[in-house]
Amino acid sequence: MTAGCWSWTGLLLAAVCVEVAVRANDGDAVFIREFTLIRRDHLPEEPLHDVSQNPEDPSSRTARSEEDRDTLWDAWGSWSECSRTCGGGASYSLRRCLSSKTCEGQNIKYRTCSNVDCPPDAGDFRAQQCSAHADVRYQGQYHEWLPVYNDPDNPCALKCKAKGSGLVMELAPKVLDGTRCYTESLDMCISGVCQIVGCDHELGSTAKEDNCGVCNGDGSSCRLVRGHYKSQHASGKTEDTVVVIPYKSRHVRLVLKGPDHLYVESKTLQGIKGELDLDRSGQHHLENTTLDFQKLSDKEVLRITGPLGADFTVKVQLAGGADSVVQYIYYQPIIHRWRETDFFPCSVTCGGGYQLTSAECFDLRSSRVVVDQYCHYYPENIKPKPKLQECNMEPCLASDGYKQIMPYDLYHPLPRWESSPWTACSTSCGGGIQSRSVSCVEEDMQGVITPTEEWKCLYSPKTAILQPCNTFDCPVWLAQEWSPCTVTCGQGLRYRVVLCIDHRGLHAGGCNPTTKPHIKEECLVTVPCYKSIDTLPVEAKPVWHKQAIELDEEITVTEEPTFIPGPWQTCSRTCGAGIQQRTVKCQVLLSFSQTVADLPDDECEGVKPAASQPCYRTPCSGVSGKEKESEKEEEEEEETPEREELHDWEYEGFTECSESCGGGVQEAVVICLNKQTREAADQSLCVSSRRPPQLLQDCKTQPCPPRWDAGEWSSCSATCGVGLMTRTVACTHRPSRDSNRTEVLRDEDCQNPKPSPVQACNRFDCPPTWDTPEWGQCSRSCGGGFQRRQVLCKQRLADGSILELPDTFCSSRTPSNQQPCAKKECPPQWVTTDWSQCSVSCGSGIQRLQAVCRKQGEDGTHWNVDPENCSLMERPTRIRPCSLRLCEKSVKADPTILAQRKVYIQWRKGKKLHLVVGGYAYLLPWTTVVLRCPTRHFRKGHIRWLKDGKPLVGLPHLSITSLGYVKMQQVRASDAGIYTCVAGLAQEHFVLQIIGSKQKLSVPESWRHGADGQQKVRQSDLASSGERFQELPISLNQYDNIVEHLLELKGSLQEGKDIADKQHSSEKNRSTLEDDSSELSSLLVLTADAHRLDEITHSLSEGLGGPWGEQLIAQLLSELTTTQGETNESTLHPPGSAESSTQVPLLYKPNIKAHTSRPRNPVIVQRSRKVGAVPSADMIVYVGVPVLVQKATSSLELRCEALGNPEPSRTWTKNGKELHYNSRVGLLPTGSLRIQSPSRVDEGLYTCTARNRHGSAALSSWLQISGGRGRNCVQGNGMGTNGPVCSERSNSSQSAELCHGQACPLRWRVDPWSSCSATCGGGSQTRSVRCTKGPEGRSRELGSKHCLGTGRKPSQTRQCNQLPCARWAVTHWGPCHGQCVGPSVATQHRHVYCQDTNATKVSHKMCGGLQRPSSVKNCSTEACALHWHVGPWTQCTATCGRHGFQSRHVTCAHRRTGKAAREHHCMWRPRPPSWQRCNILSCGRAGECQDSTRYCEKVRQLELCPLPQFKSRCCHSCRNT
Question: Among 57, 610, 977, 1019, which is most buried by a count of CB atoms within 10 Å?
Fold first, then answer.
């Protein structure tokens, strides 16, 4: 056993190396090496040489953070190894101070590591540290040291106690890093200090575990279980089970009170059983679980923190005597949890489908799936909804074109809930139920709908299958008060009116006629009849002689057939007994037209009212037989006593009692009565002096019982969207009639039912309005900021819910969602710039920090103010020392700039260009440019830039980066000029010109030298001259002419190609030779060497207008494009090309092996101009480059080599039109074009197009005929007229001139191919091949044997149109269904496919040249006979002003049946509005005062008039308040 060894590994840290011996089961010692970190302060900085990962190594040091840049600290180093391998340790990182002075802050930081549990046999970490001192003598003897835990004073000191003696000593001031501070905590000791550690194992974290053991959990993964148990000694048992606590439970606590004793049995998931007898207080261990047991005199307490390592069964040993009670509590894990499955297979294999997930019940203990009932047992378990995603979005190969015609059916529709129409309401009023069936359906690509499993639709809420309907109250009979009795004495009749009142308070039909209260009843007046002289007493008259005054009941026409009587006509006689007639008809009300129709009498039920009745007005004067007396005699009889006694006063009854209870009075009613008819007459017919006196009597003298006193209804709480009206309802009692005091009693003292204190009102949808919440927090505290809010368009519905709508539903202007705030000015403050670079690159230097006093205005702009305004604030430190490294004793090399003498010419538009100083650039406008200045022995951050001799200032689109680059976003004409990079004494220039700008660069004033202003190039004087920029360093506008002609040549080529195909040839010749596409994009920039352009400029002594000058420019363009291709891409020469590729561009890399392996698009190969040994008079050029031909040329062959699978066919066009062949211009068997004796008429743009069924490619050449024979020979480099090229051209001319008669060569002459013998299925073509000799136009035909020496005879036949014959085929039209596109108009579909002559289905590409039949058409269907049905408008909510609105029901219904349908079926027509503004009228002149709403009376009663919003709308009602 070795003692702990201290080894210094540097001056910043000391590592404690401890070899700990742990006794293993076999008795051997296992040594574990651990480390601790001890802080050392105020030690000089020196590198740690013996650390495996050197913190000083720049590669191991991270970049300095923003915080570090403003301090004197260097960046943090890499993390050290963990101090422990398990159980939680610590790792550290270091940083150094860049100043010779002390830096503020710590040079070391820590983090936790190795947060995995140690193996069970590893032992306690603190115990290992104590046992390491067992071989050290203490007070002359060895001790076996045991750890002392949970020291409250210093938990991070290593305190141990000697076994057996009780001696406690502090063996070390600090425990090793990673040691737990306390046994029941994750807090750990680091460098002798206890650091807080959360359950996420992060230092300083406050994260805690919930009761279920989940870090930062919400306690949803377990449930609290409480219970109690009472022992039953009378049962005769010796033991009993208290509770079974399942595996992984936590925070168990059991308390036993009584004489019995607890013990525990365990059973693991593998079936291993164990038992623990709790015979003593203390900690016990069972199945890797610690049990804390306390045995007291009167109770036993068992605590288990958990989690339990097995199922624990707590049992009790019955000791006899009194019964025991056990209370327990624990947190049980929810072992059955829902688990989301993987996505199911896609619903389709191509064309766009969907796939869903499901949820399965998972047993966490057995790790297997169980039935769903286990998870439903826990109410905490909420089954997750399925997730949905698209899949197989690639298009189907065998498409029938359906998707192009119906783009909205491009993807497989998702499963959806489909519901049937609502059934009829179960009741017509009073609240009923409607139901419908809802099922999950799928729709395939052809629109066929089939039901499917319900879980596939659970990604969206299932639509309701029940809903309330007709919730309004049923109409009820409402009886009015009884009329007074028709007689004043004896027995009479009384009447009342009975109305049918619906939920709107209107008189309408719908009440049950069998429950209608009666409208007439007999009444008895208990008052003695007034007796007149010579008349019988009233009581002596029979009852049936009394005629009551009947009130005719008004009968109105309803929708049910009813007898309707008309008004009575006048009596048939003016005196005596007569007859009255009236009409009685059977009528009905037609609801749809609101008209009344007459029906036969048998259509009406019940007894038909009488159509006639007797009548009696006045008695006739005189005796019988003398009815016709003169008017004079009748007038004389008017004053007879009998006339006077016909009318007299009588009491008719009493008025209503003045009180309903508690004692009231009622007055006798006196009427003038016709004594014969017993009908009331006008009071003027009776003698007023005989009127009987007024009679009063007491009534309702019984005391009033307690009754409900209801107050007035309040105004509705909402004008729409369902509101509430309230009123006060109290049980009151008034002791007596004379008392004005009212007592309030309990509700039980009044009879039920109690009137409702609340009722709903304004139950209709509100119009959409803007919802404006409170403003959010201001973005700034001063200087002008903004605060925002979310403005949404919402609508409150009649059921009280709020619906969020698109903004277009709200008619008024959208309220502002942003407003200014914090407009007060901000106080000025110091603003500092960044620290400057250290003044020296080695040794001690300084850094400066500039600070300005700056103020911010309301518009956000800043400006500098007098520093006195910031005098109250401390000014930042302006100077600080810096030291990067020690200086080396070596002479530093002078800085140099790595310039490149290049000329950049932008060929096409691109996103960004990277250029290097030292040359010229001709760029297109609106191009982003990065100009670099590579240097040696000079810091890039110190590079300075000038433009036209003046310091370059930053612009919104121009900036200088920290690495010394100049970045220009979208260059423009103003950016043209001379840019100079300055690195110390070295400098380089760069001339930038903009293509298309007419502005020429001029010499800046700072560079003019002398009066002549001559431009000179004096590179040698730059270093030695004391005054810089005194002479122009480089020439201006030197290459303008060459660049201009290059661009003109590009324009001519582009124009010809636009004629041919409207597309750039480099783009048309793109081809896919490999799967991942090896196409070469067209060139972005031409990069020319400045010396090469100088040579060409010097060589063009005859100017650029001559033909050789044009050819020289074309050759230069060819060189530049080829050089670019070789520079930017690895150009692969085609097999058989024996010449250099520096003359013409090679834009493609054909791969012959790959070409023959699988089908691919055509590609045209470009090669050098000459191939092999051909007669000098014949010129062979590969298509793709400009061609300049002399008139003396015998023939020109434009070769067009094309690759592809299958082999492509080649066609030629001239100037975009089809080329017509003749005896002089013909097509060779190889597909090349031969022109005999080319002349001026042959000039133009020739385009070769290669096609196969996979695509096409094209390449063009511009042919120009030269006038002379070419005396000036210019080589490719532009130097001199001698050399092999010139000699070859001279020989070519001579051979052309010497071709006369027998000297002309033999050649095969071919005619064009004939048309194909068949349009499809395989045909053949023929042509004639002849052997000829002599010049063009004068050649003669020879036998074929004479041309056998010139090569193989071309073929005379070939196959053509090999594709099989095919045609479009269609299936029958499908059913008429789908989305309605008009009234009674839907769509029907059919399948369209391509088939050959054998009726075999083939690819639709085989029928590409034929017109495709339609696969969809319109059809007529009854399901589309739908329209928008609108109901009547409700009453306007206001009479004037801007706040009134009204609503109506808008539904989608069938025209014939009126049956409701889903609204999307009517969407082919605009939906009528369901609400509108109304009564949008001015509420009067400014001086008028009117009410604009019908609620103003409630406003006045509720005393709301002082509020402005109510007072303005209820001006008239609130005028006196």
Answer: 977
